Amino acid sequence: AGEMVKNLELEMKGEGYWGIGDFKRVSSTSLRWARLEAHPEDKKLVGAAPHGYVRVTTRLVFQRISVPLVVALVPRVSPTALRFRVAARAQLDFGNRALQWVSDKLGGDAFATRLARREIDAALITSLEPPPPFELPDGQVLRFGYCDGPPEIVDGVSGALPFAVAIGRVDGDPRILPPRRGPAKHPPLSSRALLAIDLDLDAANALLFELWRTGFLDRRLAEAGLDRRFNSDPTVQEFLSLRISKPVLALPPVLGAFGDNLRLHADARIAIDDRGTRTVGRVWGGLVFQLSPTSVEPVAVDLGALELSCERTPTQLVPCYADLVGALRDRGADFHGELTTTFTTLLREIFVDRTVAAAGFTAELAIRGVTPSVMIVDRNAALHLELDAALVAPK
């Protein structure tokens, strides 16, 4: 609304008409997510708006009168860009037939309509673009684009805009792609939140795929130092002759819905060295995510599965080190804290303590915190991330 006031006042500066005087200011501007069933008076103005629209109300204040203006911006579905069909209604009512006749001749309503189409549409499109590229540590960038799904507007409450995760292809095997489950059901925006991001399983797996494809997840695994912790463990040092290398993910991790929780499955490779004999180990692991914002521990991550096979040849796998794998499974509680910390850190790196800005705007969106939850319906799920965010002056 602030940007629209600024643009309107810049465009109206120096304008004036006989009978109404010079333009002074814009006042009482507000924007509202709207649906036609809640505003039947807009039927003639809006026409068909099956997915809702943005309703803008403002007043153009001249020396002698104040002109009310209503603008409806109806979103149009497009796979490449956000577009609006714009309609505007301005009413110049002086309560005097002669002055009204002069006003009509001057084209007051037509002028207000042209003004709205030229300025307000451009400002709204800029503010409702997909999230800008997110830069993560060591040069990793996540990019987003438009999706061809319709907006979901709840009158006076919220508007949900669909966007997509941009992914690349794997060098050497472009057939490797994230799985597709289709659209998931999204929870409503809570009364305490102003902004949220819903990631369907498809979107979450696309993010994991891109982070895996570019090596970001492998670098985070290396930083976690699972190999160093294992190799330096006093029990391993005293009783075992084998040592392991850092794990490397062979395929992108995949997130799925199981019961009331999310599970992440991964396929990794490690080198196992036992007194100079080197073997390639294939590790299959699973993590269980419990997300409950109202509980004492709102985010909890636990080891859900762990299996190991060794390559006798690149095409022949055999069971190996079963007692060791069993012992690691039995120590699952020891992994709880580290896994939970790693996940919450990843969330913060992607979403928190960053500022989102658009060129030409006099405010920025500062994201200060994130609260995750999950909605699971029919084996599909949406990861719901409510963001603690606020508009701030640019630095």
Report on the architecture of this protein.
There is one protein chain. This protein has 395 residues and is of the alpha+beta class. It is 28% helix and 40% strand. It contains 10 helices and 21 strands. It has helices at residues 2-12, 43-46, 97-106, 108-127, 201-213, 216-224, 226-232, 234-239, 322-330, 332-351; strands at 16-17, 21-34, 53-62, 66-76, 83-90, 134-135, 141-146, 152-154, 158-160, 163-166, 195-200, 242-244, 248-249, 254-258, 261-274, 277-291, 299-313, 316-319, 354-356, 364-377, 380-392. The strands form 5 sheets. Strands 12, 13, 14, 15, 16, 17 and 18 form a 7-stranded antiparallel β-sheet that branches. A 5-stranded antiparallel β-sheet has the order 1-2-3-4-5. A hairpin with a 7-residue loop joins strand 16 and strand 17 (299-313). Helix 1 packs across helix 4 (108-127). The longest helix is centred in the first third of the chain and has 20 residues, at 108-127. The chain is elongated. 22% of the residues are buried. The model has no long low-confidence stretch (mean pLDDT 83).
